[in-house]
Amino acid sequence: MKQQRHTVIRELLAKGPIASQDELRRKLAGRGFHVTQATLSRDIHELRLSKGPDGYSLSNGGDHEEDSLPEIREVLQSFGLEVRQAANLLVVMTTTGGAQPIAAGMDYEDWPEVVGTIAGDDTVLIICPDVEQATQLKTRIEGYIG
Predict the structure, then answer these.
(1) Is the pTM of this model over 0.85?
(2) Closest CA to 42 of 24, 30, 54
(3) d(CA 126, CA 138)
(4) Residue 90: helix, strand or coil by DSSP?
């Protein structure tokens, strides 16, 4: 979903600058992508959009793959140890210092199963909307951890 949204944002900006985040949000909604302001801000940052007097535009530097954050799969493989479920909550046990990268990776993925995350030093609390979605996400995380 995120990659599709990024593609649509690039297409919209290829037609010309967009004056504000709200205008970009409305144009995305018109194309079927309903996003929050926080998600749109992350997209703008990740796509390295430029803001000038005419509004947002594609930067000349392009999208540098080597500068992007590692995929959540890589982060979970590197730092994740175990995941436990308690109703609609998941707790991911990590190596010492591994909770922050995992929580940040989860937040950037913008998965519908994740309402939010809280990270300590070696645990991440993931809040899901309901038990069913927590179970699905637990299975996915376990697959990534290995």
Answers:
(1) no
(2) 24
(3) 10
(4) strand
Residue 37's pLDDT band (cuts 50, 70, 90) = confident
- 131: Cα within 13 Å, side-chain hemisphere: 2
Q: Which amino acid type is present at position 81? A: L
- C-alpha to C-alpha distance for 124 and 72, rounded to whole angstroms: 14
- pLDDT higher than threshold 80 for residue 89: yes
DSSP type of residue 36: -
State residue 69's pLDDT score.
Answer: 54
Q: Distance between CA atoms of 96 and 80, rounded to whole angstroms?
A: 10
Angle separating helix axes 37-46 and 21-30, nearest 10 degrees: 100
Do 94 and 107 form a contact (C-beta atoms < 8 A)? no
| C-alpha dihedral, 52 to 59 to 14 to 70, nearest 10° | -130
Which has the closest alpha carbon to 79: 42, 106, 41?
106
Taking 50 as the threshold, does the pLDDT of residue 36 lie above it? yes
